[in-house]
Amino acid sequence: MTQIKRHYEGMFLISQQVAANFAEAVQHIRETMENAGATIIAMKKWDERRLAYEIDKQKRGVYILAYFEAPTSALIKIENTCNLSEQILRAMFLRADHLTLEEMQSADERQALADEARLRATRAAQIDEDEDEDDTVPAGVADDEDFDEED
Question: Could you read off the pLDDT of 99-140 as tens digits, one per residue?
Fold first, then answer.
């Protein structure tokens, strides 16, 4: 029996904490869809917003939009995996009958996702480096007899 493949759009919501390691989060979403048998047509960051209500104690989230082709049975696998995932707060899937394949392909910003992942990683490394510098005590301060912690 041949399974019918349809085009879908999926919206994934990830928390700010998960988005700190953006490359890993995007890879997790990609693997979730591909392991279920979906073929990704396009993927992009849709927006980063304040949530209308808290979800798992998170007030902000990053939305990632993906267009993909999958058999109908794969959609159930993707939904179940997303519901069990600790990295994905919410996911929603719709049939993308209103879009042509060319329109979906034109929305592909996977390179921009990779660029943002590198930028976030660089920024996180910079922050860690700055925090390490702030933790060091300047030379001579710890040995200074006039230094009083009770000021």
Answer: 888 888 888 888 888 888 888 888 877 877 777 766 555 555
CB-based burial, 95-112: b 16+ in 10 Å, e otherwise = ebeebeeeebeebbbeee
Count of CB atoms within 10 A of residue 32's CB? 24
CA gap 48, 16 in Å, rounded: 9
pLDDT in tens, 2-13: 688 899 999 999
Predicted TM-score (pTM) of this structure = 0.76
Paired residues of 88 in beta bridges:
14
Instruction: Tell me how far the alpha carbon of residue 101 is from its chain's centroid.
Output: 24
Pairing of strands 58-71, 88-95: unpaired
